[in-house]
Input
Amino acid sequence: RTGNRFSVNAMSAISTRGRMHFMVFTETFDAKVMCRFLARIVGHFDRKVHLVVDRHPAHRSKTVRAWLDGHKDEIELHFLPSYSPGLNPDELVNADLKRSLPHTHRARNQTEPAAETRRFFHRRQRQPHIVRGYFGGPHVRYVLDENPLSF
Output
């Protein structure tokens, strides 16, 4: 045990059809990382993507807005109301991830938590029934009722 603490960041996009896209990274989440994630998302689709996001400063930054202006035909962001994590089904993904990570093992280096996080997301990608289940709560029913934003 080194005494060092290691952490990783992850972001994901899920759909009511059970699809999941994710990115695991070690740097701070900022506009540059967000643009990289958006580029990865649009690269997977041949039609316009509608992505529901919270109001994190990186999501609303000038850098992201400029990137989106150059990709209007590929992707559009839709913002949740302020301070409404209960309306974001992706928060259930985050909770699921935290529950699934081993709590008794202390990482010896940065690659261990990153690998474990990637394993979780790869497993969920092969379990579309679980991804669809993130939309089952009454607080996220609005997504199923309107459903134009799913991919």
In short: Residues 111-125 form the longest helix (15 residues). The first strand starts at residue 9 and ends at 14.
